[in-house]
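Workshop exercise sheet. Pairs work together: one partner reads the sequence aloud, the other fills in the structure field after running the prediction. Swap roles for the next sheet.
Pair: D.N. / O.F.
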Amino acid sequence: MFSLVRPYIFKVNPETAHNLAIKSLKYNFLPESLFTVENEEILNSRLFGKSIKNPIGLAAGFDKSAEVYNQLFKIGFGFVEIGTVTPKKQYGNPKPRIFRLEKDTALINRLGFNNDGSDIVKKRIENNLPKSLLGINIGPNKGVKDMTEDFLSCAETFFPLGDYITINISSPNTEGLRDFHKKENLKNLLSKINEIREKSSFRKAFLLKVSPDLDEQSVNEVISLILDYKIDGVILTNTTDTNRNNLKSDNKLEKGGLSGKPLQNISTKLIKRFYKDLKGRASIIGVGGIDSGNSAFEKIAAGASALQLYTSMIYEGPLVVKKIKRDLIKILNEQGFKNIKEAIGSYS
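Structure field:
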């Protein structure tokens, strides 16, 4: 069905199409049964202490301001990550700021953390409690003098609400943000985040979302700090602002973060690298180019405990989750796995 309407959707500006998708989901008219598959129990998982129906999540960037996460659970996602949320509401970068690369099954965005701000998002979550695992991706407002203080402000706001909090240090669209990959900067940030966690009366997981563009030294340093500060998980990876050479689409030179199929091998390679050194002491969420059971299994076998997608839903519609679940179940059965957790790291 989506393949029939996609040509018309793709005639609309990408950001307008996204806003229409959010509004459509608010009507909540699609029955949950449409998105279920047989034998889905083989995909049952636990993530950060919570049971989920499957390990396929929606990445941050779609439901930026926590408007439709419960509707997204209905269409088959095992978990949803909202955001990126900043302390104050902000418009983001000037439009146009999303570009389809149809020949490459990819997107480039330079949105710049457009969202409704932490106060509004907090109230939405409090008034509409999540029906499955909810992650909250946080970041700093544009142009602030001290980005660390913005991270801490959001962490204070959302630690009581989310099942996990993602510290987004890796978007290429906020100037200076990726400087947090530097050892001393990241060490300072994580030590202060840990202070918030230690004084809290509850235990929530927190994660790092990491750039795919790190050199080997930076990878080693990030892994070391994840272990030193007992980070619960790492999201591999955010979008890349490189890797343009082999793209075919006219929009390939637009400034911003590249997502989708061109990121598939880059993120999988990093998953293997992190899995080898983390040795199960932090969970890995794999992101980048997941559009089929095969690409999903590839990341699980490389060491990912869970997955996230976004771009493939733009190109294939909401039923992409059902397709991935169905094909992933087939692969697990063919390879003799009784549950998806047995497949984690099986190729590493």
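Discussion prompt: The mean pLDDT is 96. What would you look at next?
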